[in-house]
Write a structure and sequence with these properties.
Elements (H helix, E strand, L loop, with lengths): L2 H24 L15 E4 L2 E4 L4 E7 L2 E6 L5 H10 L7 E2 L4 E4 L5 H38 L5 H34 L2
């Protein structure tokens, strides 16, 4: 293994941390309805926990309304129950054919809670990126110790890993900042 392979392996792992954060941020409510809001909902389907997206189609026909159209009409009540118990602050109503989920405006207190949650997610992912950096640095030091790379090559590679780390942590910060602005803007 060379220092180039270590760096080549580090980039997708850091990218993965940023992508994971993007998905988690999608599940956090802003003031308007988004289909990704219900991504975390898991429904008990014939004794098996199943993601809502595999049981129904979710649409946002209005800025403050989601509709859930189950493919199996017998699951209406279990889907409604799962949305209620998902702790999203949503109160679905069932009209016999579909479930309507009004998305109420956020209170100031709830906005602050969500902003705090965004900070926690961002910090978790910054830590994940730093762990990837530590892992890459350890592998580079091991290569130096085994004398497969020179000290100069190791130093250059460590600098490159640090640049990658700064770039990806910057992306995490940008995502967190934009999501926080979405949440806090009324």
């Amino acid at each position: 293994m060379s220092e180039k392979e270590v760096i080549k392996d580090t980039r997708p792992r850091m990218e993965g941390a940023v992508e994971d954060l993007r998905k988690k941020m999608g599940t956090i409510r802003t003031g308007r309805a988004a289909v990704s809001l219900l991504d975390s909902v898991v429904v008990e389907y014939y004794g098996t926990p199943t993601p809502l997206s595999q049981l129904a189609s979710v649409h946002a026909p209005e800025p403050n309304m989601l509709t859930v159209q189950p493919w199996d009409q017998t699951q209406l009540s279990s889907i409604e129950k799962a949305i209620r118990s998902a702790d999203l602050g949503l109160n679905p109503s069932n009209d016999g054919k579909m479930i309507r989920v009004p998305v109420p405006p956020l209170t100031e207190e709830r906005r602050k809670q969500l902003a705090k949650q965004v900070h926690e997610f961002a910090e978790e992912h910054r830590t994940a990126i730093r762990n990837v950096r530590r892992d890459a640095n350890d592998r580079l030091k091991k290569l130096l110790k085994e004398k497969t790379i020179s000290e100069d090559a190791e130093r250059d590679a460590l600098d490159e890993v640090q640049k990658l780390t700064n770039t990806y942590i910057g992306r995490v910060d940008e995502l967190a900042k934009s999501k926080e602005q979405d949440i806090l803007s009324v």
